[in-house]
Specification:
Layout (H helix, E strand, L loop, with lengths): L2 E5 L4 E5 L24 E2 L3 E2 L19
Length: 66
């Protein structure tokens, strides 16, 4: 689960994204599943759960089929 923290400027809880190292990130993916098929992928090149540049052919342990 993503970590949550309070943002004093917005007055609500925000989600802190995980690092690629912390989720077993693979570029390119070694198995059949790909970020481009994941519910967390945000086209064209990001993820709602993982930090940084994410390509559709990547993969991590947070994968959840869309």
């Amino acid at each position: 689960m993503a970590e949550h923290y309070a943002n004093p400027f917005l007055g609500r809880h925000m989600t802190r994204k995980k690092t690629k190292a912390g989720v077993g990130f693979e570029h390119p993916a070694k198995g059949e599943d790909r970020c481009g098929e994941c519910a967390h992928f945000q086209a064209p090149e990001s993820c709602e759960r993982v930090q940084g540049y994410i390509q559709p052919e990547d993969w991590c342990r947070l994968f959840r089929r869309a």
